[in-house]
Amino acid sequence: MASTTTLVDKPPRERILSTAHDLFYRDGIRATGIDKVIAEAGVSKVTFYRCFPSKNALILAFLDYRHALWIGWFEDALRRQSDRKAKGLMCLLPVLEEWFGNPLFRGCAFINTVAEFGDSFPEALAACRSHKQDMVGIIAGLLPAGELRFSLASAAAVAVDGAIVVAQFELQTSSAKTALAGLELILSGLHKIGSAG
Amino acid sequence: MASTTTLVDKPPRERILSTAHDLFYRDGIRATGIDKVIAEAGVSKVTFYRCFPSKNALILAFLDYRHALWIGWFEDALRRQSDRKAKGLMCLLPVLEEWFGNPLFRGCAFINTVAEFGDSFPEALAACRSHKQDMVGIIAGLLPAGELRFSLASAAAVAVDGAIVVAQFELQTSSAKTALAGLELILSGLHKIGSAG
DNA sequence: ACGCATGTAGACAAATCTGTCTACATAGGG
DNA sequence: CCCTATGTAGACAGATTTGTCTACATGCGT
Start and end of every HTH tetR-type domain (chains A, B) (predicted)? Predict the structure, then answer.
């Protein structure tokens, strides 16, 4: 997950979206006021409201943007890892280690959004659900076709979400060792199930 | 997790805390104003601020209260299940199924709090970390003493947190089937590791 | 040169939030 | 009877929030 702070002279909509992304992800959505986004993006209020008719619209755009950013990174990182040695679900370990080690890591934006809004913002909830489904789909792609493919991918996704949360709880300095160790044990258990039966 | 709505004539501090618990857990902390807690608890503003000098103090009291409530329920439910058939980590399945089936289920209050506040409220973060450590300790109690005890308990906790999050994402009507199926697969994998090596 | 897109700066309204304050009621102990 | 503790009701201050509005600047195509 690269930072998104290269936005010198892009069109205002992109500047706003990129700024909102960084602030929403770092500080939480509710904690981030529109005025702060406007000031940090260096646009005027009129410009902002011409691009996004309301804060809710910005939130939905943020979720789309984050989705594209994260899924893009995830697929790329998996590709990089499976080019190396790791096989099957085990690719997930170095990939997540890379993410958790990023100093900007603050958990999963979609988990955090559901935690903040629950079902009080249905469109946002739908976007979060869709994101997680896509993640499961990509994880399923690591597995050979077969009866257990979807079950194993769903279980691995449960483990990944758990590891994300545990990593979020750990101190920055620990680089999420507990989360990754737990995930490794889980994935090796799932591997046995997948290969042996 | 029982509801907490039996608070007719308790002392005001308990009424406030119980009301705050229900609102904070259901709607989120930031989304719940002090005025709403006050109105719903049926106390006056002066009374409220005599019991809790600030909203942050109420939040910390809420986390303590929720911790006691949840850990109490968790230990009791595990005891009930291990009295029956389930053994070791497998006790977790019916226990979590019971929780996820509760219509008031809205995920883990501590995960949600970390998602809302991150490290912007260090005392709250510390309370959340402490809660999760206690949860890992209880899970470790399900396992025989041995080299792998702590590793397996940590891994199971990762899986439990993941299942909580996935259950939170699922529709109310699904009773969190995906989360529980994934957790079951994970726990059976961990069981193999624990017993065989 | 004109008109229009697009931009900035910032006042403003209306709501909401936390926290303090005054004024008043009530019940129990000495 | 009176004092104090504990409670209610609600006004108020001050900050912050979202969203609208006016007034002005700048650049571009025709």
Answer: 10-70
